[in-house]
Amino acid sequence: MAVRVVLLLVVAIVVLTVVLPLLRRPPLRSGRPPAMLTDELVKDPVCQTYVVRSRAVRGRGGDSAPYFCSEECARRYAG
Fold first, then answer.
1. In 54-77, which positions are buried (b, 16+ CB within 10 angstroms) versus exposed (e)?
2. What are the residue ranges of helices labelled H in 25-70?
3. Which candidate, 3, 13, 60, 69, has a CA 20 to 30 Å from the CA of 26?
4. Range of the domain at 62
5. Residue 14 in domain
6. What is the per-residue pLDDT across 22-77, written as a single tens digit (0 to 9) for each?
7. Whole-model pTM above 0.85?
8. Residue 31: predicted pLDDT
9. Which residue in 61, 52, 63, 59 sits closest to 75, CA to CA?
């Protein structure tokens, strides 16, 4: 009997530690993606890898300049 009570208490504690944080989260607003998903991936034309635009190296040439994963790829593309 005591083992069942202890087991029930352990299960209740685990469920509460998992469920309560999920209930406290604010609901996502529809129509607008979360802020972390706003940055897009760009493809490096030299090594063909994808890089997050905010961390990519921008090539020279105005608005149509390509993005690169590193300075090395940018140099290889230019020269």
1. eebbebeeeeeebbbbeeebbeee
2. none
3. 13
4. 2-26+36-78
5. yes
6. 777 776 666 665 555 568 899 999 999 999 998 999 988 777 789 999 999 999 99
7. no
8. 64
9. 59
